[in-house]
Design brief:
Blueprint lengths: L2 H16 L20 H10 L1 E5 L21 H5 L12 H10 L4 E7 L25 H12 L2 E7 L10 E2 L5 E2 L5 H19 L4 E5 L8 H14 L4 E2 L7 E2 L4 E2 L25 E5 L15 H13 L3 E6 L9 H17 L7 E2 L8 E6 L2 E6 L8 E3 L6 E6 L6 E4 L4 E4 L10 E7 L24 E3 L7 H4 L13 E2 L7 E20 L5 E10 L2 E8 L6 E20 L4 E11 L2
Parallel strand pairs: 1-2, 1-11, 2-3, 3-6, 6-7, 10-11
Antiparallel strand pairs: 4-5, 8-9, 12-13, 13-14, 14-19, 15-18, 16-19, 17-18, 20-22, 21-26, 22-25, 22-26, 23-24, 23-25
Length: 584
């Protein structure tokens, strides 16, 4: 560790010690301190694979987003006084934990404090907490105890930024205002005090999950000091990469070797296949993190595919629920969780304790491995012929359809063909179990081809507009990735936009499949091809909808675009697929 960072940390520790917060161990030699958790802690967490995220607080009374709606949808004064009405008399910690357990979840992460500053526990460092509400019950205490009774690992989410606290420099809405007399040094001490308090009162924790590190008051030195502070208090705890400044965008990957954090955190998207760096996708079961009336609930098929493509990429899934203001988890969300749990009771041996691969996840398939087993999860099948997987370098000794059926496998040096009669394919997920001659994890990971056969799949794309310029999450490439869970999105208030794809060589195209993620918004559009500097329409239409196929006279070109001429709101396209044949 660099001397400057060591001095920053030791100074903070000395200050904390003087206040009686904790008694640090002797650090005579810097090498005595482990910058990484014990390998067994990381292995245990990785093996659990599936956890429950909970975003909850007084904001549930309004049904708006936690933190972000302060000063936006809800005036600041009103937002900050919601706690005076917050009385979730139907909260039952044992019931929440039982729901997580029935869903097949192995750990639980609750928002101890979000960006709005409200604390869900009895904190000695602020009155803006649960004990100042009419409820007057310590949620973290009850939930941590319930988790231990039921064998679920208890974890907390804690926001680094705090738009409520007067010492934190930035305020609402969304950290875009500045407070008159901030004191960042004093705020950092508050942050250290509260995190120590949580570990002391409710630990040991499985994970302390940080967020809000992107804002400018937080520095790399702050991250190093906080990471070491937490690790000193509980050496075997896991700490995510949002404690430091290494995360880049919603893809959540840590860039650079100097940043601390035990795992990466893709948000609202399945992470990229990675066996080297541990990661965890966090995603909502509806659309909003906090509870919202009539929010759009993900289907069972969507939830299972998200889970299996995450685990197949060697990651964990932290699936979020937002309890209602009365303290109950919404019944329809509970029912969806129970459906997931029922599926996992049958096929969870292909999820828990596995590693991702060897077939990298795609829009139609994912796989995991353990010992001499490969578990293949098939979401979609080709319209004709067998399903063809890439070749692997170990012999398949046995193959079973766990979901039932008469399976035939053909293995050659060029492919692994899977034949299963259409009537025997499971409408949710077909589960195959392959037994190989060696350790399945030793098989080199291989990418799967596009099942759709679209000429546009994976090709370079660009667009006239991207939602809040979040290219990695909502960029044009998301509409040509053969993945219905991702999407190209535009800013609110956008009524015209275009999406272009470069097929990289001239192709004969006569068909397009378009999926509108939020339908129906598009009212008028054209499919166009480039001829020199000119764009020439080859199809004109009005509505698109969730899934539509359009045929037109064959044209040969390299560049095509979807030109949305009129939309009621910002267009959002899940897939833009072009079909035909390549010009050889």
């Amino acid at each position: 560790m660099r001397l400057g960072y060591a001095l920053v940390f030791l100074g903070l520790m000395a200050c904390a010690k003087g206040m009686g917060i904790f008694s640090p161990p002797c650090l005579a030699e810097e090498s005595q301190f482990e910058w990484t958790p014990p390998p067994e802690s990381l292995a245990r967490w990785r093996a659990m694979r599936f956890g429950m995220f909970i975003h909850w607080g007084p904001v549930s009374i309004k049904g708006t987003e936690i933190g972000w709606s302060r000063g936006a949808q809800v005036p600041i004064e009103e937002y900050d006084n919601l706690y005076k009405q917050f009385n979730p008399v139907n909260f039952n910690a044992d019931e929440w934990v039982a729901i997580a357990k029935e869903a097949g979840m192995k750990y639980l992460v609750i928002t101890s404090k979000h960006h709005d500053g409200f604390c869900l526990w009895d904190s000695e460092y602020t009155d803006y907490d649960i004990m100042s509400t009419p409820f007057k019950r310590d949620v973290l205490k009850e939930l941590s105890e319930a988790c231990r009774r039921q064998g679920i690992v208890f974890c907390t989410y804690h926001s680094i930024c705090d738009w409520y606290h007067p010492d934190y420099p930035l305020g609402s809405p969304g950290g875009r205002t500045r407070k008159p007399n901030p004191n960042m040094e004093r705020y950092v001490q508050y942050l250290h005090n509260q995190t120590a308090e949580i570990i002391r009162k409710y630990g040991p924790l499985g994970v302390m999950w940080f967020d809000g590190e992107w804002e400018e008051p937080w520095t790399h030195a702050h991250g190093l000091a906080l990471y070491k502070h937490i690790r000193t208090l509980q050496p075997d705890i896991l700490i995510n990469n949002r404690v430091d400044k290494g995360r880049r965008g919603m893809e959540g990957n840590t860039e650079g070797p100097d940043f601390v954090g035990d795992f990466d955190t893709p948000e609202q998207r399945v992470g990229t296949f990675n066996r080297e760096r541990p990661w965890e996708t966090c995603m909502t079961i509806c659309r909003q993190w906090a509870w919202k009336p009539n929010d759009e609930l993900k289907s069972l098929s969507q939830c299972l595919q998200i889970l299996l493509r995450t685990v197949g990429g060697d990651g964990n899934l932290l699936l979020n629920v937002g309890p209602m203001p009365d303290g109950q988890i919404e019944p329809r969300q509970v029912e969806r969780l129970r459906e997931i749990g029922a599926w996992l009771k049958k096929y969870g041996d292909g999820v828990y304790g596995t590693r991702g691969g060897p077939f990298k996840p795609g829009s139609w398939v994912a796989s995991t491995c353990k010992d001499n087993k490969i578990y293949v999860f098939i979401f979609n099948w080709p319209q004709q012929g067998p399903l063809v997987l890439p070749p692997i370098n170990q012999k398949v000794l046995a193959a079973v359809v766990r979901t039932g059926g008469d399976l035939k496998i053909e293995q050659t040096n060029t492919h692994l063909a899977v034949n299963l009669p259409p009537e025997q394919r499971d409408p949710l997920v077909t589960v195959l179990e392959l037994t190989v001659e060696g350790q399945a994890f030793d098989i080199p990971p291989v990418a799967v081809p596009s099942l759709s056969g679209a000429l546009s799949a994976g090709k370079p794309a660009k667009a006239s507009n991207v939602f809040q310029k979040r290219v990695t999450q909502f960029g044009p490439q998301m509409a040509v990735d053969d993945n219905p869970e991702t999407r190209w999105a535009t800013d609110a208030g956008t009524h015209a936009a275009w999406l272009e794809v470069d097929l990289q060589r001239p192709c004969r195209v006569n068909r397009a499949v378009i999926e509108e993620a939020y339908a129906p918004r598009v009212q008028e559009f054209q499919i166009e091809y480039a001829e020199g500097d000119q764009w020439i329409p080859c199809f004109k239409g009005s509505r698109i909808g969730e899934h539509a196929e359009f045929r037109f006279s064959e044209v040969m070109a390299q560049r095509f675009r979807l030109n949305i001429l009129k939309a009621t709101e910002g267009p959002t396209i899940g897939e833009f697929q072009l079909f035909g044949r390549e010009q050889k």
